[in-house]
Amino acid sequence: MAKAKLALQGLYAVGICGDAFAAYVRKRYDDYGVMIRESNIKAQ
To answer: Distance between CA 8 and CA 40 in Å, rounded?
Structure first.
């Protein structure tokens, strides 16, 4: 039930932890940073 609620929000549970999870978060952070800079999105 929790996975279904997360999926409705576009979130997906992943079965990783520790260093692998840290690397995943860094990669996503970097990917979003590139998209934000390329789109010239600014904080308000």
So the answer is: 28
